[in-house]
């Protein structure tokens, strides 16, 4: 661990919460960041909800995170598109988290000759909407997706997610999307810009080697893997890269702040 990290990025699910319940140490960790006046962002590949929605959901779990301290794949996607083509247009498959983010950067949402087709997370994927997306991509729209996650969690078990639907569209069009969210380090770089942080003094905490840790390494950050989510100790040995630290939970990270 580099001396005196000043800024912190942390994944949400599997690090701070699991199935909408706060994990032990999460509240104390967030409070330590506030007490030490450390800039931080909570990151999530979930593009369904707006930061305001997520802040309210976290509060119900007992965690206080202002909406300004939440960075989603939807926000990262909007920032990327605004940089690529300011004031452009997009046909969107997704929920309020994505449409709100695109509106906020001045994008027009349309199904008539859009510059981009943007695929995000939704619990109600429509065959009609997917068909429209395929035809627009074949007509020249560029294909963007918020994140590559193939499945998402639910109380009943895994659900098909953005990556799965993107694969179907790719099969029909022959066009691969550009994924903005984790493990693309683009999401971390845009997060660093958001809090005016530098990679040299920023730490990323995550529960997955294949998204959080690899993206953190590629973005030049120190990385902490906690074992309260997807990755186990045994899993770590399967990867050719290593996090800076492997800790049991977020509770053990508190003293590093």
From TrEMBL:
Q: Where does Mg(2+) bind?
A: 11, 13, 207
Give me the residues that bind substrate, please. 182
- Cofactor binding note from Swiss-Prot or TrEMBL: Divalent metal ions. Mg(2+) is the most effective.
**Which controlled-vocabulary keywords does the entry list?**
Carbohydrate metabolism, Hydrolase, Magnesium, Metal-binding
Q: Which GO terms describe its molecular function?
A: metal ion binding; phosphatase activity
Q: Does the keyword Methyltransferase apply?
A: no
**Gene Ontology CC annotations of this record:** cytoplasm
- Give the domain of life: Bacteria
**Active-site positions, per UniProt?**
11, 13
Listed cofactors: Mg(2+)
Say if the entry is tagged with keyword Magnesium: yes
Q: Which InterPro entries match?
A: HAD-like_sf, HAD-SF_hydro_IIA, HAD_sf
Q: Could you say which protein family the record assigns here?
A: Belongs to the HAD-like hydrolase superfamily.
Protein name listed in UniProt: Haloacid dehalogenase
């Amino acid at each position: 661990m580099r001396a005196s990290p000043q800024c912190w990025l942390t994944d949400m699910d599997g690090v701070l919460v699991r199935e909408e319940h706060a994990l032990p140490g999460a509240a104390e960790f967030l409070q330590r960041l506030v007490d030490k006046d450390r800039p931080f962002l909570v990151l999530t590949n979930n593009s369904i909800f707006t930061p305001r929605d997520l802040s309210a959901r976290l509060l119900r779990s007992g965690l206080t995170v202002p909406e300004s301290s939440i960075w989603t794949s939807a926000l990262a996607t909007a920032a990327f598109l605004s940089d690529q083509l300011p004031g452009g247009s997009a046909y969107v498959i997704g929920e309020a988290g994505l449409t709100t983010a695109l509106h906020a950067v001045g994008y027009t949402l349309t199904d008539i000759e859009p510059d981009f087709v943007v695929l995000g997370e939704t619990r109600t994927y429509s065959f009609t909407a997917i068909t429209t997306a395929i035809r627009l991509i074949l007509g020249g729209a560029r294909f963007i997706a918020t994140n590559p996650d193939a499945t998402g969690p639910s109380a009943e078990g895994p659900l098909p997610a953005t990556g799965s639907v993107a694969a179907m569209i790719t099969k029909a069009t022959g066009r691969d999307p550009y994924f903005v969210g984790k493990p693309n380090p683009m999401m971390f770089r845009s997060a660093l810009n958001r809090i005016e942080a530098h990679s040299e003094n920023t730490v990323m905490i995550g529960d997955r080697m294949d998204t959080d840790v690899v993206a953190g390494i590629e973005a030049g950050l120190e990385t902490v893997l906690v074992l309260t989510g997807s990755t186990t100790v045994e899993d770590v040995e399967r990867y050719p890269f290593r996090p800076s630290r492997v800790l049991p939970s977020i509770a053990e990270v508190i003293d590093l702040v």
